[in-house]
Amino acid sequence: MTLFDTSLRLLDRVRAPRPVHAHCDLPCGVYDPAQARLEAQSVKACMEKYNASNDADFKVRATMIKEQRADLVKQHLWILWTDYFKPEHLTAFPHLHELFWKATKTAGEAKKTNDVTVADRLLSEIADIDEVFWATKK
Amino acid sequence: MTLFDTSLRLLDRVRAPRPVHAHCDLPCGVYDPAQARLEAQSVKACMEKYNASNDADFKVRATMIKEQRADLVKQHLWILWTDYFKPEHLTAFPHLHELFWKATKTAGEAKKTNDVTVADRLLSEIADIDEVFWATKK
Amino acid sequence: MTLFDTSLRLLDRVRAPRPVHAHCDLPCGVYDPAQARLEAQSVKACMEKYNASNDADFKVRATMIKEQRADLVKQHLWILWTDYFKPEHLTAFPHLHELFWKATKTAGEAKKTNDVTVADRLLSEIADIDEVFWATKK
Amino acid sequence: MTLFDTSLRLLDRVRAPRPVHAHCDLPCGVYDPAQARLEAQSVKACMEKYNASNDADFKVRATMIKEQRADLVKQHLWILWTDYFKPEHLTAFPHLHELFWKATKTAGEAKKTNDVTVADRLLSEIADIDEVFWATKK
Amino acid sequence: MTLFDTSLRLLDRVRAPRPVHAHCDLPCGVYDPAQARLEAQSVKACMEKYNASNDADFKVRATMIKEQRADLVKQHLWILWTDYFKPEHLTAFPHLHELFWKATKTAGEAKKTNDVTVADRLLSEIADIDEVFWATKK
Amino acid sequence: MTLFDTSLRLLDRVRAPRPVHAHCDLPCGVYDPAQARLEAQSVKACMEKYNASNDADFKVRATMIKEQRADLVKQHLWILWTDYFKPEHLTAFPHLHELFWKATKTAGEAKKTNDVTVADRLLSEIADIDEVFWATKK
Known about the structure:
Mean pLDDT of chain A: 84
Shape of chain A: elongated
Strand order of the largest sheet of chain A: 1-2
Number of strands of chain A: 2
Oligomer: homohexamer
Order of helices and strands of chain A: HEEHHHHH
């Protein structure tokens, strides 16, 4: 994505009455990639705090909470993938399956490391999903 | 809040690198009232679909899912109340406890009815909390 | 299944350290599509019992339990898809993503109906996944 | 509370057909601060066992289980606060919100330490809530 | 149990520093049959409210919540049975397995009915377990 | 298991509507000791990976995941014991209660150790339960 595209996209978000959420008219309810993103940010915060700490118990807790948060990332992404996206979306975005497979795999990888670049990759993959998601809402 | 304040606040949201979320620097992690709001919108959607349907089984499912979503609203709000807000916030916003007590009670009330005005009140109370929350972030 | 097959199978159960499962050597642990299949059979059983009953409360419970079981089907399938399958498997089975997308969507559809043919389709899609899974184990 | 008050209260508990629990006549069901207290005692036990042990794995488990138990303390207290207590109770006990805010914050604090005085403070705050609770039952 | 025994037992409960809970000195933590009893009382309350109501949605919710509460009864009882009780207890109370098997089966039965006598039987079976439990604490 | 057995087994999988499960005709649904066995194999795998690793964080995760998996073993076994087995089964298999008590206790023991022989004992006890289970299905 070029810087220009990014700017347009940010502007678009500002101008439109873009809610933080998306309201789905189908039986499946309300969806928003923000749910996955928030948990992924929590994963990243756990890593940062783990890396900044010398307290063994704190590190255990950071590892444990990161595991749970990464699970929530996977949950929110899986639900989006299966419940929100429809065959016509796949036609328009043929890389949809790959996007979700990679992002959920990255969430799994984030459980096994405190390397913040993994969390950043996860956030970036969720941003890609977010982009596709909002494109289907136009 | 005057219309002018609201405009400023909206502008503020736009200009600053305001993420959809909030990053907490304390051990407790990442917070955002958007999590409660999304579930409350789901509660409202369940009510609307319940009211629009004549299918008994669908109504059972809407009732059941609404119950779970309203529980999630309460969870997210309780976590904000206890984990995010600090005594200095209470000094600045003395109605904080009342805000959360009323909003979580309304979430409970939303389980017992399909009256959409209850869901709208819940969303409005979460919007009030959201306002306080973002004010503490400035 | 012939009587002869059944006999062999029963013998097999008696004599041997008969695994029903698959042991994964990677950090992700132990996988087996049997977990999804068992929950899908429970979904089907809930439908059959719903259809055979005239008791309103029983039907509520069947609907509710079916919802939970269908959720478990999705969970088990999502975990297989993201955690077990690797890029090399996708090369060998290019329809992998479609298989899982369709099966998890069918599990969602099974929540909304008591039409047993939907449960049968779900079981058939899980059988297809099972086949791919065991082929990767050879 | 004076010793005399305590004695009266204990006597009161003995004489009356005081059940271990409280039966709520409203749709919300059955409440009893004993649920929070039991989990808080578990939190304290985890700390004591952590402190008495030299086994690294045991300490990990104690930390992990304490985290879950402290979460349950918060759950039970939040439910009491939002679901059981009514505006008229707040009039009679104006410190109600503070009581619950402090106790749930202490439960959060107990996750971060193995200092038994924190668990004792938590138990004492739950005892204060218990007192208010039973006063509303008279 | 004779009335005299009952009286002694009640007296015993009063005099001794009998806590609402039991503190286990083994790694397994804190146990108390009160946890199961409270949930069983909730099961009974759900039945009573179901029977007193003419509101179809309320009845769905009562059925659903009763199911969850009965599950919690089973959980608490299973944990007592497996985690708290030891072989020496079984020697002293040879009917221990039967007690728990019957009580957990009754909890399952309580899911399927709104007949309050089933809930009363459940409460009575939990009272029997409670008696054995406290006898092992002396 | 001989190669011949393996071949038969593979053939069986390919040809037949091979069930891995058991279909219960009562309201309680679908049961299969395979569910407990799969989680017990996961417990064993966690131990093996713990023992083979020198990475402190990995060991924390293995301990944590083993705890959850051992809990699932207990859940699946408790459900079988209470929900599937009936008084007539107990008549035919008088050691039924002991089987389940020991197996669930072993699952608890497996949380506290990384001694693989404990996991092997757990698997063996589940195999005994499996044998009884399938005998009741004939």
